[in-house]
Amino acid sequence: MKQISLYADRNSFVHDLDPISKLYYILFSILVPVILPSISVTLICSFLSIILLLLAKVFKKALPVFLLVFIVLITVVIIQGLFRPGNETIFLKIGPAVFYKEGLLYALKVTLRVTDIVGAFLILVLTTKPSDLVESLVRRGLSPRIGYVVISVFQIIPEMTSTMSTIMDAQRARGLETEGNLITRIKAFIPLLGPVVLGSLVNTKERAMALEVRGFNAQGNKTFLNEEKTSVLSKPIQLGLLLIVVMAFVWRLLT
Amino acid sequence: MTKIIADNLKYKYPLSDKLALDNISFKVEKGEFIGIIGANKAGKSTLCQALTGLVPHFYKGAYGGKVFVDGLEVKEHSIAEISLKAGIVFQNPFTQMTGSKMTVYEEIAFGLENLGIAREEMQKQIDHAMELMDIASLKERNPFDLSGGQMQRLAIASIIAMNPEIIVLDEPTSQLDPEGSEEVFLAVQLLSRQGVTVIMAEHKMEKVAKYCDRILLLYNGEIIDFDTPGKIFSRDDLKQYGVVPPIFTSVCRELGVKKSGTDEYPVTLEEARAALGRKVK
Amino acid sequence: MIRVENLTFSYPDGPEVLSDINLDFDMRSTAIIGQNGAGKTTFAKLLKGLLKPFIGDIYIGDTNVRDTSAAMLAGKIGLVFQNPNDQIFKSRVLDEVMFGPLNIKLDKQTARKKAIEALKITGLADKLEVNPHDLSLSEKKLLCMASVLAMDTDIFILDEPTIAQDHTGKETIRKIIQSLKERNKLVMTIIHDMDFAAENFERIIVFNGGKAILDGDASFVFGQKDILQQARVEAPAAARLAEELGLAGTFLTEEELIKDLRQCGERAQL
Ligand SMILES: Nc1ncnc2c1ncn2[C@@H]1O[C@H](COP(=O)(O)OP(=O)(O)OP(=O)(O)O)[C@@H](O)[C@H]1O
Ligand SMILES: Nc1ncnc2c1ncn2[C@@H]1O[C@H](COP(=O)(O)OP(=O)(O)OP(=O)(O)O)[C@@H](O)[C@H]1O
Ligand SMILES: [Mg+2]
Ligand SMILES: [Mg+2]
After folding, report:
1. How far is CA A51 from the centre of its chain?
2. Residues 6 or more apart whose Cβ sits within 8 Å of residue A70
3. How many C-beta atoms lie closer than 10 Å to residue B222's C-beta?
4. By the number of CB atoms within 10 A of the CB, which of A81, B188, C132, C148 ranks highest?
5. Residue B155: predicted pLDDT
6. C130 CB near a chain A CB, below 8 Å?
7. All domains in chain C, ordered by first residue
8. What is d(CA B100, CA A138) in angstroms, rounded to the nearest whole number?
9. B93 DSSP assignment
């Protein structure tokens, strides 16, 4: 049973960074462009995210996500470019459609912000094992129960797959054809559904027992097998990011 | 020091119309190794669960009487609290896996993390448990890709690693190779010599006879007898309770050979050799 | 009935589990023994077509397992899984047992009849409407047995059928195996209970290190002390007691031993 996640195992300083610093970075990428809403600031932030993705050697894995996001954003560009209230300066005419500069600039800003935030999230997701992230949070006071649920969510798909293949083995062992062409496989899929649900319910009950007798709900402080990932950079990075946010805020108030 | 007290315990599963445990009373002293034997459905697993709080906290139903585990009344304390004192190894090892750990090593660590054991100590305890169960070479393997017997070893290791004062094992050797079962009994015996109180349900009479200090014979949810292996397996009416003694005992009984100076039949290989040896020569 | 040629197998990214196994199975009932992780279950799954050989071939009758699907083999070869949780998937005992017969194209009436018959043999006839997940482990194991019996295949493979069984349960299984033998079925069993193996099987094969290192009848196999020790299995209790007593020959059952000891006793009296 593997965890389903986008995590890409690479060697980079981003990977070595602790998950909490990456959470700080997400906060930073959301807040700074909101506090200082100029296009140039947003541009710098998005560049930073992209550069970090490149340094983490995971840019290729990030591309499909960006592509998906851009497809959605195209509608923003079109709608804002055409219809944004306050549109005055004509920028471009394509047949009957007139694009205005104000709307397009706004759309650009939205696009950059989204790039920035999506990039920041991808840095976390692509370079951090879900279990490491959850463990970091549990260390900081997240309830282990919630932690377990989060981990389970990451495991739903692989767990379903493994339950399914177990049941399929049981079925073909007793004569149900599950191999072969697409139609056979689709036919084999239907009698799988009931048992998979039933199996998961039974599993859940047995799991709960397994956890209980291993002291899962015991009072007192938990410890962790794995040492927490911390690099010497963690604290400076977290402080630096906070400082920039605060400075941006002060700057905003002063000007 | 008395570690376990059951006082007139009665229990009925929900939706069931018959008592699974009835009028169960017994005491176990610190460091004893107790075997629970009896036919299928005699109530062995239910009793194991009652000693670790799964009955009545996880399995509801009608509950009467009292069970004390190391001074805690089971009914009044949560499974989590009891799990600090008494560990249980389930009958089917497959159901013992937490499903949230990727390797054998981490699976064993799970319980220790919850107990708040410091890392170095944790690693020591894990290594020790893996060695006892002979699974050190499987350390990095995924728990769900193990063979049946390997998984059973892992289930036992993950409870032993938690160092409970009381260990309850429900047929822990059912899927082990002969040498493996012997090792488990030896390991558990060693623990009991070190002061751990052990309760083990088993169908392998030869091993129970050899290793257990006392045997609890269950039938239909009731205690028929609670005595030494020699006494239990010398009973004339064992068959009636669905239990067959070790071959060593039946051979000697058939030939009318008793342990010298006692009224009991031999129950182990060594005893049988000593008793029969006189006869053969 | 079954021919295994140069069979080699490993799980993805794993070490070799079986290496270059050559075995022929005739009608002799066969027990496969060997230490945990020796590859016994893997071997059974390969015969059944649930896993595909890495190298080598398996023939069930004239059919090469490579050229067919597990489903197509299901009418010929039945497997009782080691872990019942892996085998059971229906929510009613009767449906669980009828699943196989229905798939090998029996009509509903016949399938039902076969299922009920199999449940009677295994002692579960009063549990038709029960949810299998509410059964105890020993009952689940018997249910798995019933599901396979109902298909009435020519070959039966039982992966550790005696797990969790008490004396009565073992007797039930012993009787089932006897009656299958009488009906000319090939019965193969993977088992850790040496007394049961010695008493009920004509041929014993010992697996170790990915190979079949011993193969023969029970008195031959259980006479090979050194090899047994290497494979981490032991001789039946009767044989061990006989050895301790310094009796000549290999004793497999309680009865044989008692008979011999009686004679010893009589001789001593004379
Ligand atoms: N979850 C359950 N719900 C209802 N009844 C149950 C449940 N589990 C067990 N029982 C019933 O309680 C009684 C005792 O069962 P238990 O499993 O304790 O026996 P056992 O001695 O462990 O048997 P085995 O040797 O088969 O493991 C049986 O009559 C059984 O049918
Ligand atoms: N799905 C799997 N993926 C990877 N390795 C596996 C898988 N299943 C089994 N193995 C490994 O293959 C080897 C043989 O396993 P197998 O289940 O065939 O053993 P076995 O002889 O049946 O043992 P047991 O007596 O414990 O049931 C073991 O080392 C096991 O860990
Ligand atoms: Mg039980
Ligand atoms: Mg196996």
Report:
1. 18
2. A111
3. 15
4. C132
5. 97
6. no
7. 1-76+154-173+180-234 (3.40.50.300), 83-152 (no CATH), 236-270 (no CATH)
8. 15
9. G
Cα C269 from Cα C267, distance rounded (Å): 5
CB of C195 closer than 8 Å to CB of C237: yes
The percentage of chain A sitting over the pLDDT mark of 90, rounded to a whole number, equals 24
Q: Would the CB atoms of B273 and C136 count as touching at under 8 Å?
A: no
In 3D, which of C197, C107, C196, C189 has the Cα closest to residue C145?
C189
Show residues of chain B in contact with C134, CB under 8 Å: none
CB B167 within 8 A of CB B89: yes
| % pLDDT > 70, chain A | 98
Distance CA B56, CA C36 (A): 35
Closest CA to A129 of A253, A9, A252: A9
* ipTM value > 0.90: yes
Q: Would you state the structure tokens that stand for residue C214, as one six-digit string?
A: 């011993």
Which string of b and e fits A32-66 if b means at least 16 CB within 10 Å? bbebbeeeebbbebbebbbebbeebbbbebbeebb
**Chain center to CA of B206:** 15
Q: Chain B, 142-201: which have a CB under 8 Å from a chain A CB?
A: 142, 144, 158-159, 162
Dihedrals phi, psi of C4, to nearest 5 degrees: -120, 125
Kindly report the pTM of this predicted structure. 0.88
Q: Which ligand is nearest to the CA of C209?
A: 2
Rounded-to-integer distance, Cα C236 and Cα C225, Å: 11
CA-nearest of A225, A127, C15 to B100 is: A225
Copy the structure tokens of residue A66. 């960006």
C68: number of Cβ within 10 Å: 14
Q: How far is CA B55 from CA B48, B58, B59, in A?
A: 9, 6, 5
Q: Each residue of C25-35: pLDDT tens digit?
A: 999 999 999 99
Residue with tokens 């009072």: A219
On whether the CB atoms of residues C128 and C98 are closer than 8 A, the answer is no
Pairing of strands C203-208, C211-216: antiparallel
Q: pLDDT tens digits, residue range B32-84?
A: 999 999 999 999 999 999 999 999 999 999 999 999 999 999 999 999 999 99
